[in-house]
Amino acid sequence: MHIEQFRNFCLSFPGTTEEFPFDERTLVFKVIGKMFALCDVDQFESINLKCDPVQALELRETYPGTVIPGYHMNKKHWNTVFMQHNLPDDLIMEWITDSYNLVVEGLPKKDREKL
């Protein structure tokens, strides 16, 4: 998956916005103001995705060196996925979808209903 595919897929979810809240390199995707994915636009080497804590551990064990605790994120709830390890696009899209859905589930009911 290349950065344009990643960006387009993230933006395909309802209520998604993109911004650079930290610096001019870190692209963040949010749903109703809550982050669900981010990456470095200059060096698309990895992506950070929110993850269920149990699943996060399972993915780290299943894909050692490819999926690690979230870099500069809450290690319990975020994973960093290294893109140069050539994971199948459908697997990455599944993880992005899971991240989006996890964030949506945590939104107040009135915000979920907007989506």
Automatic annotation (TrEMBL):
Pfam families: YjbR (PF04237). This is MmcQ-like protein. It comes from Rhodohalobacter mucosus.
